[in-house]
């Protein structure tokens, strides 16, 4: 057999094998991805334990510890948020009334401190476009909410697969990386860039996102509880929304503030504005988040998550495609795609036209 045909045949078999494996394991992708992120983020601690125990014992200690500290609380949040969001979806489907929504919006608009000309312009715009706007908003909200609740519906199965996978990622992780580097046709330097970028993204996402989400959820729930609203629901909503850079917290606290103010609850609106705009939006989002990311990111490592537009869009797309874990999967897929472009630029720098 001629070498060119042999090479093409082997490449076709490889593509079919990879495609078949992805299709076969597609039901487990969210659990496998979460286990992989956790394993990468905590692999340094696993290596330290290996100096004192065998590989299997060290992996078992890490898996059990993380199950109690991280995976079980996360699964509980998924379950609770799933139940809350399921109720919300049912409410939207059964109680959505365009006329009633129109009345609430006009009441809210009339209660805001706007000039008559601006209020008249907004009122006209709302009246002429409200039906289409509300229908599109409802469909988009339902697709996001259904994406979030999809993972919660089988969280016990998800939990078992995640714990099981995490244990074997610890034991076989280094061998898997070595095997991939050996099979890769790229230079070891370029392989190192890709693997280091993925590891850096995993550590940054898992660490910073959970820390920021926890802080924003707890802080906002305190403000909500202060004015007598359901703290658990709004706290979880704020924690999930905080995964979306820049826009996250805003989509929770701003509508709530405007509604409370328009209903004459000025003091309550100011409290939500304080906790939302100042504590969540300014202190945590703009001061604490960059500090946490800087601490977790490797020194001198270019972070592909700095592309804010791509990060926001990939986060929303990830939720629609993968459910709540799309908050991680979406940005990492987008960031790794950017990293591959960077590797391409390094590999073929001499042949690229810079004019």
TrEMBL record:
The keyword Membrane applies. The chain crosses the membrane at residues 12-44, 56-79, 151-171, 243-263, 269-288, 309-341. Coiled coil: none annotated. Pfam families: AI-2E_transport. InterPro entries: AI-2E-like. It is found in: Membrane. Keywords: Membrane, Transmembrane, Transmembrane helix. This is Acid membrane antigen A.
């Amino acid at each position: 057999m001629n070498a060119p045909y042999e090479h093409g045949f082997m490449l076709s078999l490889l593509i079919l094998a990879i495609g078949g494996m992805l299709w076969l394991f597609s039901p487990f992708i969210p659990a496998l991805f979460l286990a992989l992120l956790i394993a990468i983020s905590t692999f340094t601690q696993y290596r330290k334990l290996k100096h004192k125990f065998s590989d299997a014992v060290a992996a078992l200690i890490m898996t059990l510890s993380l199950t109690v500290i991280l995976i079980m609380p996360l699964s509980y949040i998924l379950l609770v948020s799933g139940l809350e969001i399921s109720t919300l979806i049912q409410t939207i489907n059964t109680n959505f009334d365009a006329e009633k929504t129109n009345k609430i919006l006009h009441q809210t608009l009339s209660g805001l401190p706007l000039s008559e000309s601006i209020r008249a312009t907004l009122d006209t715009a709302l009246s002429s476009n409200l039906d289409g706007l509300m229908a599109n908003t409802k469909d988009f909200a339902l697709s996001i909410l259904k994406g979030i609740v999809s993972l919660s519906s089988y969280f016990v199965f998800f939990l078992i697969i995640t714990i099981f996978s995490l244990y074997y990622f610890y034991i076989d992780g280094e061998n898997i990386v070595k095997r991939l580097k050996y099979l890769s046709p790229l230079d070891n330097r370029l392989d190192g860039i890709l693997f280091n970028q993925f590891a850096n993204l995993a550590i940054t996402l898992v660490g910073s996102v959970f820390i920021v989400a926890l802080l924003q959820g707890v802080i906002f729930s305190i403000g909500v509880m202060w004015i007598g609203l359901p703290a658990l629901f709004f706290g979880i909503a704020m924690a999930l929304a905080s995964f979306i850079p820049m826009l996250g917290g805003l989509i929770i606290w701003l509508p709530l503030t405007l509604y409370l103010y328009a209903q004459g609850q000025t003091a309550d609106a100011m409290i939500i504005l304080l906790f939302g705009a100042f504590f969540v939006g300014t202190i945590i989002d703009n001061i604490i988040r960059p500090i946490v990311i800087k601490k977790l990111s490797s020194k001198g490592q270019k972070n592909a998550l700095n592309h804010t537009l791509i990060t926001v869009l990939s986060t929303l797309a990830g939720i629609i495609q993968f459910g709540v874990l799309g908050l991680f999967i979406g940005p990492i897929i987008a960031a790794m795609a950017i990293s591959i472009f960077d590797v391409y630029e390094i590999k073929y720098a001499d042949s690229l036209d810079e004019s």
